Amino acid sequence: MFKRLVIVLGIVFSAIPALAQSPPDPINAALEDLSNRVNRTVTLSQVAEWNYQQSVYPSPALGCPQPGIAYADVLTGGFQFIITYAGTVYDYRVSDDKSIVVLCGTAPAPASIPPCPPPNDANFLAPRLSKGIQARVIANGLPNVIREQPGSSSKLLGQIPPNDTLIVIDGPRCTTLDKIVWWQINYNNLIGWTGEGQGGTYWLEPADISLTPTAPIPDNVVITTDNAAQVNVLLTFNTPLALSNDGKLYAWTLDDSIVISDIRSQTQITSFPENDVKISSLSFNAASTVLAAGFENGDLRLFDLTSQSTTSREIRRMTGHTGPVTSVTFSPDGTLIASGGADKTVRLWNASDGTALATLNVMSTPIIRLAFTADGIHLIARDQNGSSVILVATTEAAG
Predict the structure, then answer these.
(1) SS3 call for 205
(2) 20 to 30 Å CA-CA from 391: which of 82, 89, 110, 298?
(3) What is this structure's pTM?
(4) Rounded-to-integer distance, Cα 399 and Cα 397, Å
(5) What's 215-262 look like in SS3?
(6) Which domains are delineated in the chain?
């Protein structure tokens, strides 16, 4: 809560969202007052964060009446400026003509960055970006603007044309007035903040994946010797990927979330956003009812693709690998799971209860590929050096 310097009795009559490309001139009156209070010149470039809202107030009190002053009921245009400087948040009210400047309250700056998007605020788009990745402005859209600080009212620094790529270096930050998730980016050595989207429309997308087909999708055309010369790229990924056996679904990753999509329509069917560790491998079971996911912390998790749960669809979690799980696969009958890791081991698990069945030290470098034969008799493993082994059971199963 703001430490109140005056008793607030005024009611805002109407508010106009701050959408200007540069700061409004009245902010200079607020900065001048702030400079006098801290005994040093404070410019906009020196503040940690700022935003504003333009309003029409019911009186010259600007929604922040001062004790002992009577105010006429005259509609007065003005601004509310929230300025964070030197660890303190200042709430200023300034009239349009700058004749009225009121410091309405102060509060310590938050010790940590608030959640973005705020919990339970459905007006924000779910972020699809993350720090350190490449992103691009969605093709056939408008250029994305780059601003000095998060917020539609911040100074305009430049634009990013559609389909151009950028590097995400920080974020996210959320601005509650315009409901936008902002990311600090580097675009051709210009560093600033740009919005991910607004009102249900994304302006940016991860550059690791093409979200639209790069070739037309024919109806049920099987790749054969007759059409092999016409094979073309459908989708490109720089993320873990798994195809269902029937070829209708694919699983991929987006920011630490697992996404299940329909391969023909490219529509998202479901996602599992609860993963707090980077995903390193994926595999469907034969019936496309369970998805196995390997993680960089060594976890192996199973997700129920038939569940209608709105919280978690995780069935179970298996631990044992001491490094990233780099490959995972189901046996043809779905009863076994084989996983390989950067720890150079191949591990076998009971798919029904997650029991660890065997740990095989058969490679000298990290495992990169595992595959069962169609009859389930052989398991093939390949390591980073290009060496391969064939594994086979030496005793008949009981029963």
Answers:
(1) strand
(2) 298
(3) 0.50
(4) 6
(5) CCCCCCCCCCCCCHHHCCCCCCECCCEEECCCCCEEEEEECCEEEEEE
(6) 3-108 (no CATH), 134-206 (2.30.30.40), 228-392 (2.130.10.10)
